[in-house]
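We emphasize that the prediction below concerns an isolated chain of 104 residues; any contacts that depend on oligomerization or on bound cofactors are therefore not represented. The input was used exactly as deposited, without trimming of termini.
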Amino acid sequence: MVMKHYPPQFKADAVALYRSRPGATIKSVAEDLGVNTETLRNWIRAADGRRPGSHSASGTAPAASVGDAVQAELAAARKRIRELEEERDILRQAARYFAGATRW
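Result of the prediction step, given as a token string:
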């Protein structure tokens, strides 16, 4: 069996996707992403600050730090959205420029 290596951003996005779907199961999200169920479960545990393979909830972070983490994640997501919108606008302008340059 070949071990796949996923980039840290993919892992973080997978965990965020699971958390953003209140009724979703780990299995359904893992199938949507094409990863093993246990792999996603380990990523979620790691994001919670627990060791992969541990089953106790005693390693969870306090509520205040979870709120801070959510706020930091939200700020990072908003920054990324701004970057993507800026890139989209640049590409649109380039497409308009090149479309106009090809007309006779």
